[in-house]
Amino acid sequence: MKLYAVSDGPPSLAVRMALKALDIQYQLINVDFCALEHRTTEYAKMNPQKEIPVLDDDGFHLSESIAIMQYLCDKYSPLSTLYPEDPVERALINQRLCFNMNFYYAPISAHSMAPIFFDYERTPMSLKKVENAVDVFETYLQRLGTKYAASENVTIADFALVSSTLCLEAIDFDFSQYPLVRKWYSTFKEEYPELWQIANSGMQEIIAFEHNPPDLSQMEHPFHPTRKPKA
Question: Signal peptide: which range, if any (predicted)?
Answer without folding.
Answer: none
